[in-house]
Design a protein that fits this description.
mainly alpha
């Protein structure tokens, strides 16, 4: 059988300023980590949907410019025997 607890006190996790500072630093480090992961990922997706000319001229950052599917996507689907699709084959013609 379970024992009864005589002192029913609430548990307080963050009682000192050290705890608040530590948790603030943890949250800031998590936010920086998420940004460091998402920005390159979003850039790669935007670059894959942008035209190669816009990509080479440096116009693409986080949003596709001159939206097209003829770049990497058309190249990767047009070479079924290739294990590594190359984006350079389309714009190098």
């Amino acid at each position: 059988m379970a024992k009864e607890i005589k002192n029913n006190k609430k548990v307080r996790y963050y009682t000192k300023w050290n705890d608040h500072l530590y948790m603030a630093l943890v949250h800031v480090l998590c936010a920086v980590s998420v940004v460091c992961i998402l920005v390159p990922l979003i850039f790669v997706v935007a670059a894959s949907f942008s035209s190669p000319k816009a990509l080479l001229s440096g116009k693409v950052y986080l949003w596709p410019v001159d939206f097209t599917l003829r770049g990497c996507w058309a190249t990767s689907f047009s070479y079924p025997g290739s294990s590594i699709p190359s984006c350079t084959r389309w714009w190098a013609r």
